[in-house]
Amino acid sequence: MELTTCPQCGGKQIQPEIIKDVVLNKPTIDYRCKVCGYHGTPLLLEKYEGIFQGIKPEVPGFIGPWAIHTRLDNGERKTLSVLWEDARDCIRSLGLKKGDRITVTVDREIWCIDKVTDAQ
Question: What is the SS3 string spanning the chain?
Fold first, then answer.
């Protein structure tokens, strides 16, 4: 599943606008963020849900990068490669422990993990 978000503020209220291109004399699509007013190309992120399996160094003995291991609902396993500070801060702020349900949103250099609670 893909998530369209604003690259400037991270808002999810970015919507396409049809603009008439004066050079080509035909309509083109531009995007505008309702939160910060950004105009331009949105950021497309891959989003998936699964179970938090743990965190381990990608190369044993090194400080980072670290791999966050997850298991998706369909049984597939996914790994995020992150710097230790990012992983540590994420796990501490969410209080993640093995077996927690999470939603992961990933793009080339941007990643975010959200804990899924019973209320969601």
Answer: CEEEECCCCCCCCEEEEEEEECCCCEEEEEEEECCCCCEECCEEEEEEEEEEEEEEECCCCCCCCEEEEEEECCCCEEEEEECHHHHHHHHHHHCCCCCCEEEEEECCCCEEEEECCCCC
CATH class of the domain whose range is 2-41: mainly beta
Residue ranges of domains in the chain: 2-41, 47-115
- Its pTM stands at 0.59
CATH T-level assignment (fold) for domain 47-115: OB fold (Dihydrolipoamide Acetyltransferase, E2P) (2.40.50)
Q: Per-10-residue mean pLDDT for the chain, 120 residues long?
A: 78 81 75 88 84 82 77 87 73 87 80 73
